[in-house]
Structure formats: structure tokens, C-alpha cells
Specification:
alpha+beta, 3-stranded antiparallel β-sheet, about 30% helix, globular
Length: about 240
């Protein structure tokens, strides 16, 4: 544990608070090392070592989630001529606690990003390395990302508005991308329509139970004009 905290303090000492995004954050697929994951937390004031460790825990959780996670979605909508209202929208992801414990033992922090609004770490195995190209300061500004869906490649983009905590925006965008992937792979839809007093309404239910495997983040972007955050993932 002492060695781990020493490593955290080393990463903190070489980072410059408020620095722009790094390329491994905006274009995670360029990291090249299989299974690299990103973890994020809000800044913790003067106690950055604890924040970095919490980001490490988040990164390990995402690492396991990328490999395999059971997704459950229950969504009920009520549609009328005036529009559609969501009555229920439950989304849960379950990961293997044994795999998480294993990840916490085997993964290391490859690099750290101190942004103005959050702290992020790139985690991976000891065999991975991050070169200067991936550490370069880059812009995250961009528009919605094009996705590719062929027999061999499946990509999905999730979108989120800007929240008070930037991490929440990134998390929601990634979750929405994973939702899209889950619905694409397995979606059971049922609906009941009713016409009464010349008004039509419909109750629509969507249920998904699917295991997502080998789902990796490709890119993160912000549409500054619309204040929207985008995350694109790929199923491999």
C-alpha cells in the first residue's frame, strides 16, 4: 500500500493542475494496449492522493465492465397524440466481484489527467505504456461522432447534456452508448394501443437482459455550441 501511495504522489507531482485534456482521454482507442480503461472523480481539494486512488477504483471497475457486464433495462413509455412520456426507466449493470478484485491487484495507473473539473486516470496492465504522443494536450471540442455498424464492427454513440459536475456528463454519455448497444443486441418490445373518445394512447414496454462483452471506449468529444457531451464505444 505504501508503494502504491508513493506512485500516486509521483503522478500528482508531475501533473499540472488545470491542464487541458490528454489524447488518451479524447481518443482512448489510440492507447493501443488491450483493455485500457479510464476512471474519473471530482477534484478533492488539497487531498489529491485520495482522489487519484478513487479514480483508480473507478478505472478498475470500468476495466471489468468493458470485459463483461450484465445489462438489465426496463423502460415503459406512455404515448399520446401530444407526445411521449417516460413512466419508468430502470438501467442496471452488474459485474463480477471476483474479476474486480483481480483487477485491483493487477492493474496500474499508466497516466493521470488533472482537468479543471475532474481527475482522470488511465489504467492498464504493467505491460502497457503511454508514450508522449498520448500525453499531448489536445482539444476535446468536436461534433457528434459518426458510427460504423457492419457485420464485423458495431459502434454506438451516447450523448449527455452538461451537468454541474463534468464527470457526470461523461458517465451519462457512456452509459447511453452502452444502453444503445444493449438494445441493439437484445430488445423485447411490447405495446398496447387504445382509442377512446377520439384520443389514441399507447403503452410501450421495452425489456433487455443481455451480457455485454468486449465493449471499449473509442472517443470523447464536446459540442461546445450545444453544450453536449459525446462518447463513442465499439463492440469487438
Amino acid at each position: 500500500m505504501r508503494e502504491f501511495l508513493a506512485a500516486l504522489l509521483f503522478f500528482i507531482s508531475i501533473a499540472v493542475p488545470g491542464q487541458p485534456y490528454k489524447r488518451w482521454f479524447t481518443d482512448q482507442y489510440l492507447a493501443g494496449c488491450p483493455g485500457c480503461a479510464v476512471g474519473m472523480v471530482e477534484p478533492a481539494g488539497c487531498n489529491d492522493s485520495i482522489a487519484v486512488y478513487q479514480a483508480f477504483l473507478s478505472g478498475c471497475t470500468n476495466y471489468v465492465k468493458q470485459k463483461r457486464a450484465m445489462v438489465s433495462i426496463d423502460k415503459n413509455d406512455w404515448g399520446t397524440e401530444s407526445g411521449t412520456v417516460s413512466i419508468e426507466d430502470n438501467y442496471t449493470e452488474t459485474i463480477d466481484s471476483v474479476q474486480l478484485a483481480d483487477a485491483l491487484q493487477k492493474l496500474v495507473i499508466l497516466d493521470t489527467l488533472f482537468s479543471k473539473n475532474f481527475i482522470a486516470v488511465l489504467v492498464g496492465s504493467n505491460a502497457c505504456s503511454v508514450d508522449e504522443f498520448l500525453k499531448e494536450k489536445v482539444s476535446v471540442i468536436g461534433s457528434e461522432l459518426a458510427v460504423s455498424r457492419t457485420e464485423k464492427v458495431l459502434e454506438f454513440t451516447g450523448m449527455s447534456p452538461r451537468y454541474a459536475y463534468e464527470r457526470s456528463s461523461w458517465d451519462e454519455a457512456e452509459t447511453r452508448a452502452r444502453r444503445e448497444a444493449a438494445f441493439y443486441l437484445d430488445a423485447k418490445v411490447s405495446s398496447i394501443g387504445r382509442l377512446g373518445d377520439m384520443v389514441f394512447d399507447e403503452r410501450r414496454k421495452q425489456k433487455t437482459r443481455v451480457e455485454l462483452r468486449n465493449v471499449f471506449v473509442l472517443k470523447r468529444r464536446i459540442d461546445k455550441t450545444a453544450n453536449l457531451f459525446y462518447v463513442t464505444i465499439r463492440l469487438e
